User: What shape does this take?
Amino acid sequence: MNLVLRPPGTHLSAAGRPTEEDLVDPTRLATRRHGSRLPRSVQRLLGPVLLLLAWQAASSWGLFDERQVPSPASVLEAGRDLLRSGDLQAHTLASLGRVLKGLALGVSAGVVLAAVAGLSRLGENIVDANMEILRAVPNFALLPVLIAWFGIDEQPKVVLIALTVVVAVYINTYAAIRNVDAGLVEAARTFGAGRWEMVRTVVLPGALPGFLVGLRLALTGSWLALIFAETVNAPKGLGRLMTDAREYFRLDVIFVLLTVYAVLGLLSLALVRFLEGRLLTWRRAFDGA
Amino acid sequence: MALDQLDLAAPPVAVRAVGVTKAFGDHVVLDDLHLEIHTGEFVALLGRSGSGKSTFLRILAALDGEVQGEVRVPRRRAVVFQEPRLLPWQRVLRNVTVGLTRGRETQAKAVAALDEVGLAAHRKAWPRTLSGGEAQRVALARALVREPELLLLDEPFGALDALTRIRMHALLRDLYRRHRPAVLLVTHDVDEAITLADRVIVLQHGRISLDVPVDLDGSRSRRQPAFAELRSRLLFELGVTEP
Assistant: This one.
């Protein structure tokens, strides 16, 4: 389109009627998405990267006291030291093991309890109020009880993580089961689906998106519960590393640990995204249409 | 029924409702309803919103058991609802076979049913990628594959656009001619009822207020005077007078 600048008014014909040159090109006016060759996941890192750059710049100019706010460079240094000594790997692996055990326990228990409560009135009466109570109890109050019951070794830590996971998975999966479209259930019944086929082909697939929301919350929650669990008698683990760093006022190490948590959180998110892509193909087909 | 009263000339009955009464609290929806539908008969049940027509269909579909009176329906029934009600997480073919024993025979029947509604090529599609008309055709195939003796249609074309609806009418008429189930079509569309059914029943306040045969030639053309005459009569019965 040619843009011709003219003094106001001159684009009207002599009769005062608008001419064809008054017409504008709507495809030019419409907002268009500016395509970028970078993948979306990389583009989304722009914010954190800018923050890091600003942080490093401020540190280099001496705006921060190095003891209070270590520069990204010195955090990187501390991270390298921890990696070289093998400490970071050992502690991370110990924590990862606890989280995986807690997740395995919590997710399976959460799904079973949600199915029991979601599929029958009696199950709901027995399970649901208990789960709401468990949800209301803070981990802080739970840990001493778990220590009294399971000692101070691995068990209370895994159980604390599992309890956090079970609540997140249960609440979302149960709600999702109860929200399955009643019309679909009714239709399947008129077409002769028995109870088991109903559960397998209508209710559980219908509750899957809700379960995945619960899983996402459970993954985040499991790491938070882990840090807390590892404040008690953990010879190895990220929580132990955190406690030590706090004792010796090693802020640079604490920032390394924060980075590790951030990475673990992002990996958890990536895992759920992967599962969603795999399990909810029918929904992706819709989004892509 | 006593044996000596049995009318041997009459075709066998697919639906028998005797004194069916249904109330929600104080609100009586069906009031001592009597109706018989013969095997292979296509009946349209007309009524305004709240006339009880959908309630009656739900009773015949065995979706509502708290009823007074006597109801008999065939064992093989199938329903098409206003919404397609397809499972979004199952592909089209699996939606057609839902509730049936799985196997190669079922599979072949389902493909044949999809072929009849012109959707054999879509058997592997996800329901959400289908248009409204296509989804409803899948719902028809899902009903057909059961080889129903009674086909219950609950305003099946109500949510479709006008052009798709005309095409669906032709398809349904064609399927009916080939399979000859007894059909109960619940609708509030007078034209639809006359175009499709052999007998039109008007339901008002839970009772049958009119029961007329559709005596039109095979084409069911709207240009026939008989069509317009029946249309006016049914509309009048429903409380609508056209200028």
